[in-house]
User: What shape does this take?
Amino acid sequence: MNRLLHQLTSILPYFLASSQNKKNFAGLALPFLGFADFFGGNRVAELKCKTSLSADTKLGRRAGALPSKPDPKHVAQVGYYANVLQCPTSLVYANEKDYRIFDETNCQELTPEGMNKALDDLRARV
Assistant: This one.
């Protein structure tokens, strides 16, 4: 856990505290309101914690699994932040042992085109 905290805290100084964002989208009656976890250096980062689960192990728990690709709902969330703030985004998934960072360099869903598609899908559901 200490190694993970050290690694995560080494990247967090590049970001400011949470940022509140509000935007009206055409065709929707209510505005979207969001709070980005970290914003700075012309980038938004959203942290998703994967909690430990009870397990039949020495410690009585096992670390939550890190995804191999981002959850589509999380992509839509950061797509909204990218749209409002006009900047690229990162999704950071972390458990007590490790972390995984997704951004436009390693995840098609977080490219501008991928996030626009996620926003279009979100608008279609609402």
Notes: The first helix runs from residue 2 to 11. The longest strand covers residues 43-49.
